[in-house]
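User: Before I run my own analysis I want an independent prediction to cross-check against. Here's the chain; please return only the structure tokens and, at the end, one sentence I can use as a sanity check.
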Amino acid sequence: MSNQPDPRATQASYQFEGFTLDLIRGCLLYQGQEVKLRPKSFEVLRYLVENGGRLVGRAELMQAIWPDTFVSEESLAQCLMEVRRALQDDAQRLVKTVPRRGYILAAEVRAAAPVQTLRSGLRRLPSRRALLAAGLLAAGLAGGALLYRGVFRGARAPATLAVLPFRPVSQNGRDEALELGMADALITRLSNLRQIIVRPTSAVRRFLGGETDSATAGRQLQTDWVLEGSIQRSGDRIRVTVQLLSVRGGRPSWAETFDEKFTDIFAVQDRISERVADALALQLTGEERKQLTRRYTGDAEAYQLYLRGRYHWNKRTTAGLNKGIEYFRQAIDRDPHHAPAYAGLADSYSVLGSHDQGARAPQEVFPKAAEAARRAIEIDETLAEAHAALALVQLHYEWDGAGAEKEFRRASQLNPRYATLQQWYSQYSIARARTEASLAASKRGVELDPVDLSINAHLAWHYFLARQYDQAIEACRKALELDSDSPMPHWYLGMAYEQQREYQKAIGEFQIAYVLSGGSPVRPSSMAHAYAAARDAVSGGNPVYLSSLGHAYAVLGNVREARNVLAELEELSKRRYVSPYEKAILHAGLGETEQALEWLEKAYRERSGWMIYLQAEPRLDRLRSDPRFGNLVRRVGLAPLGNPGG
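Assistant: Structure tokens:
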């Protein structure tokens, strides 16, 4: 609803940066379409516009908007946030804050007549010129409406929110799965709203336990708002206290306590989600409001099992993924129509068989992932995670480019702010030699989740396959700032160093990656030591990192150590799955074309996820002149033959 017109207005309207501030109707327009503002936010914008180019002090602004009322500075901060959101001014280019002094509207403002005045004038002038002007005006308004709906509304910078894991009221009998699961459920609900970016569960997991205060967590996660709370379950009762904090002001804008039966946990989540949307002044569509309170199961026990599945899945370890599968299956046994549990099952199987983890053989897990994803879509076609999970299977296992593209697009329509989806779509794009699309998706993933290690590290993977090694190294260093104990950035860094012929640096990074993944140190040694190191490892480190180490030794010319690593890969394969692709990489480094192609053929038969990157993989360049290699690329059928990485 528009704000009430001000009878004192002497100026009909103002225009700036494509916006019209209509004082007659009391509304803000963009290209003829109204942009919603609450009354006080409208008054704040009006005062800044009328004083455009002049520094307006904080006290002056508060006195002008709330002349006879005492309000906190948080009220002004909320109005300014809404104004900036309406002006798509997240970077504060238009409404600038001058620290400790006030605010200034840095835009060229000009006086103008309101749209309705023009319309009334046209009706009084039925001349050819007037009719032409009316036609142009109508076309302009229609075009502006399309522009707003198609571009501006989607481009307006949304608010950012982090939902932190709920804290336990008491350390006795803690339930970490419930603490993180409550946050995960709210994240899922609020992520359906297009006016807000919600950090994913993977980003907030590290705050489980509540050692970091909420404002600090919000700053680390680069958000405007933080939703925090505590939770306690006692028998069949649950007590939840929750509040919404401004990261900048550090003050709560809303708080509430719920004391309900555990079976009413869904109603508690409904209420919290609605209150957050109201507190952030979000203008929800009917469909968004419906999604906000959507329940995928009415069985509280099935829901609890699902939460435990996601809790373990979010660890992204082999043990965690296997445990997650157990809980997802139990949730499905309780409620065979729980679509998110099927999606979680698909995600778990896919990650276990993924090319970079390689914990299970692709033929063992990807068909199960496909079955679970398709069942989830059958139950609920609007579940973005299910479409993304199916797309990943079609990309890495079924090698169905058209099918993957279709599912990725559908997932993006349903949830364009699903950061992991952007990461997976980047993989799809680079596999199909669409380098620019891959980079755009990878950067979008980082924008959506700037502190997620996997998503940040993936940017380095993109640069490596695009053969931009300086950028890959820089991306690795940024990822390592997030977590220097993660093997993945060390691995990517090693591959980039190797391509720049800095072999000793590469070997060092591969050693670190392998040890961090659970392997025993592999030092220059005899073959006997290599076997002993393999036996010492309980389950062995990631063979992907070990293979890369062997390849670096090979291209350096240290054939003996390369063959030691090859022997260790053989020993490791007795205790866990080792993809034929890893052996192909090592033989390629040794210049043994026949053996490399033989192992690639085996990888093809096993439908290794690595095969989709054949066209881009720099370490296979020496095989490209062999017709059999080109035949393999064509048989996988994802990337056109051409310049690698192009």
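Sanity check: Confidence is low (pLDDT under 50) at residues 4-10, 114-156, 525-538, 641-646.
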